[in-house]
Amino acid sequence: MIPVKEALELISKHSASLTPERIDLKSALGFILAEDVISPINMPPFDQSAMDGYALNRTDAIEIYDLKYRIQAGDDASGIHLNPGECARIYTGAMIPSGCNTVIQQENASESEGKVTIVNGADNLNIRPEGEQYKQNEIIASVGQLLNPGGIGFLASAGIQSVHVYPKPKTLIIATGNELVEAGNELKKGQIYESNTIMLQSALSALSIPTESIKLADEKEVVVKAFESALEQYDLILVSGGISVGDYDFVREAMDVNEVEEIFYKVRQKPGKPLYFGKKKHTIVFGLPGNPSSALTSFYIYVLPAIQSLTGRNSPFLQQKSVALTHDFHKKGTLTNFVRAKISEHGVTVLSHQSSAMLNAWSEANALLMIPDESNECKEGDLFTAFLLPAY
Ligand code: AMP
Ligand code: MG
Domains of the chain by range and CATH? Predict the structure, then answer.
């Protein structure tokens, strides 16, 4: 059994990013760039009007300008030249003609019979110079950057159509247990509804990771065979249940038979003591305890960071924050506890229903509060580290 800190270090050490691939920018939301993006163009690509108004070849001596041209957004104005005292009607985003040194906002000008008079004194330049946002061959997005909607729009403005990113791991979720029944079926005596698969799938779909899933009976041959084929096909395998010490827990044995390298098994924590982490070639395997809260806690503390590393994130762990307890709390035993908790402006409150088998508190929880091994009698106001859960 290893301490939590060591388990976290081993996750970092053994979750290298996946081999980058090129994908369409249209599907790039949530991916991390594996390569700098260089702009093929200046942006804007030409001097551009920032206003609807009049483009002038302005000199202080002249108040009234001859209106000679009309330039709309999208027009090629490269053939137009304004002499002193001349102007063009121009619109936002339209190309500035040569000879223009100022765009007067239309609110500051009056137009009549082919003449434009400046009515409101001086105006700003109102010209967006070519290359003001970025220049051709400039790095406009860097390795490690998360592609969010704004970032994707920014790249699209440079005409970028595809990006080199770290792919999402091809993921299989395995639920083990003879007692498990899918919703929609009647529960027979001794059975329970299977809830880990949909829970993990939901957590993964929030990371845009599609998953496949299978269910296995607690039979050694079945588990061994399933792993044999899964290890060939997936980057990440999450198996729940069957990793404890019961007579019908075959997951660890199945890993051994299939030559999965065990990186750790058992962590000094509650919930999630029998957590397993192993690797075969590039495939990462997590053996999550079957108890639903143990599985989900292990997911957030260990699996999610591993996925973040596989997909190229630099700081993979959940954000952490030191928070003060709003009440006294007694922790049993000598293991590190991760308790479902709620942070408010008053501090952090440990929620009820903390048993590993119970999922009751998760919809209210916004953090997993880490209570270290030696902290048994925790007092109101004591500070602990909270791992902040994603908000979704
Ligand atoms: P195990 O780790 O297989 O010993 O299972 C521990 C507990 O978690 C048992 O009460 C199982 O019935 C329950 N359990 C295991 N897998 C699931 C699952 N996929 N959905 C809901 N409960 C489960
Ligand atoms: Mg089981």
Answer: 4-18+168-310 (3.40.980.10), 26-42+134-166 (3.90.105.10), 48-128 (2.170.190.11), 320-388 (2.40.340.10)
